C-alpha cells in the first residue's frame, strides 16, 4: 500500500511546472497510475478484511477519499495543461505575426 506524501520541494516543483505541458502530462500519468494502485489496494483490503467489516469499511473509506483527491488533482492538472496549451498557441501565433511583419519591413 502506498501513501501520498509530498515534500515542500515537490510541491514547489509542481508549481514551477504548471505551464510545462510535458511535466503536466507526466504528472497526469503518475496520478492515473497511483489511482489504479489505490483501487487495487482497496480490493485487496476488502478481501483481507472480509471478516472484519467495520475495519475494512474504515480502510475503504480512507482509500476512497484518497482516490477522490487524486481524481480532483488530475482534473485540475488537465485543466491547467489545456490553459497552458492555449496560451502557447496564442504566443506562437503572435510570434509568427511579429516575424511576418519584421520580414515585410525589410
Oligomer: single chain
Total E-strand runs: 0
Biggest beta sheet summary: none
- The residue-averaged pLDDT reads 79
Distance between the termini: 64 Å
Into which percent range does the helicity of residues fall?
over 70%
User: What is the CA-atom radius of gyration, in angstroms?
Assistant: 21 Å
Bulk shape: rod-shaped
How many helical stretches?
3
How would you characterize this protein structure?
The chain is mostly helical and 106 residues long. Helices cover 85% and strands 0% of the residues.
Give the topology:
Layout (H helix, E strand, L loop, with lengths): L7 H9 L4 H28 L4 H53 L1
Helix pairs in contact: 2-3
Highlighted features:
85% helix, 3 helices, 106 residues, mainly alpha, rod-shaped
Compact summary:
With 106 residues, the protein is mostly helical. The protein has helices at residues 8-16, 21-48, 53-105. The chain has one domain.
Amino acid at each position: 500500500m502506498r501513501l501520498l506524501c509530498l515534500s515542500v520541494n515537490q510541491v514547489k516543483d509542481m508549481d514551477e511546472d504548471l505551464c510545462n505541458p510535458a511535466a503536466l502530462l507526466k504528472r497526469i500519468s503518475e496520478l492515473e497510475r497511483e489511482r489504479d494502485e489505490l483501487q487495487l489496494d482497496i480490493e485487496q483490503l476488502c478481501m483481507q478484511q472480509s471478516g472484519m467489516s467495520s475495519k475494512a469499511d474504515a480502510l475503504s473509506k480512507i482509500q476512497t477519499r484518497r482516490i477522490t483527491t487524486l481524481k480532483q488533482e488530475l482534473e485540475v492538472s488537465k485543466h491547467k495543461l489545456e490553459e497552458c496549451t492555449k496560451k502557447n498557441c496564442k504566443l506562437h501565433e503572435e510570434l509568427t505575426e511579429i516575424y511576418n511583419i519584421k520580414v515585410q519591413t525589410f
